[in-house]
Amino acid sequence: MSLDVLVIAPHPDDAELGAAGAILSMRAAGWRVGVLDLTSGEPTPFGSPELRVRETAAATAVLGLDWRENLGLPNRSLEPTLEARGLLAGVIRRTKPRWLLAPYWVDAHPDHVAATQLVEAARFWAKLTKCDLPGSPHHPERIFYYYCVHLKLAPQPAFVLDISSHWETKRAAIECYQSQFVTGRSQDSPTFLERLRDEAAYWGKSIGVRYGEPFASREPIGLRTLAGLV
Ligand SMILES: [Zn+2]
Questions:
Q1: Which of 20, 38, 56, 160 is the most exposed place for a label (fewest CB within 10 A)?
Q2: What Å distances lie between residue 35 and 7, 12, 199, 207, CA to CA?
């Protein structure tokens, strides 16, 4: 089994919040896309482990993912340990993605910062020979970073993807997580979901389309032609 892109998320719902538009766009192009959630994301004020698993399964179906697993690392105390690095490198060697999507490297949530560090270290380890990791060496060519940030950042993304035709499905995937984004939250306008739509509209405006999704990159992005630019 090999994926085109593996999206790695600290908690179930982060991939949806930060990258569902890209996931849907890649799936529409016939790419094989998987999501690896690093932790259960629980406990949360209105969630439970069982409910979160059901919500994740519903969102997975909405996104039409080819593959999704949970690595079972500890929520709220995620650390980029050698053991966790080995586990994640094992998944990368098993799923052989061409690219990785990881959470943006600046965040107030320690799990998110740890997840970024873990992805970068595991990507490097995954290519090692003469080691006791399972499977054969594999090195994903690129990492792009999605924004699912617990800070009032003004991001300076490396590129913005046009997700206009996927916004409604992205919203539907996020709405699967009722325990996280609807239950117990104020329903006064703007609601959490309305703010997300406003953000997507802001990024869309920045590139002259209805809705957009921003991504960061630590490395320059090479283009073969200018034909794909919005
Ligand atoms: Zn999270």
A1: 160
A2: 5, 9, 23, 27
Q: Per residue in 86-103, pLDDT tens? A: 999 999 999 999 999 999
Cα distances from 139 to residues 19, 59, 116, 203, in angstroms, run 22, 28, 16, 31
CA of 7 to the centre of ligand 1 (A): 13
Distance in Å, CA 139 to ligand 1 centroid: 25
Condensed to tens digits (0 to 9), the pLDDT of residues 112-149 reads 999 999 999 999 999 999 999 999 999 999 999 999 99
The CA 72 to ligand 1 mean position distance, Å, reads 14
Q: Is the pLDDT of residue 210 over 90?
A: yes
Per-residue tokens: 50: 């069982």
Q: How far is the CA of 226 from the centre of ligand 1 (A)?
A: 35
CB-count burial class (<10 Å; 0-12, 13-18, 19+) for 165: middle
Distance CA 34, CA 62 (A): 13
Q: How far is the CA of 112 from the centre of ligand 1 (A)?
A: 6
Does the pLDDT at position 4 exceed 90?
yes
**Dist. CA 44 → ligand 1 center (Å):** 11
C-alpha 61 – ligand 1 centre gap (Å): 20
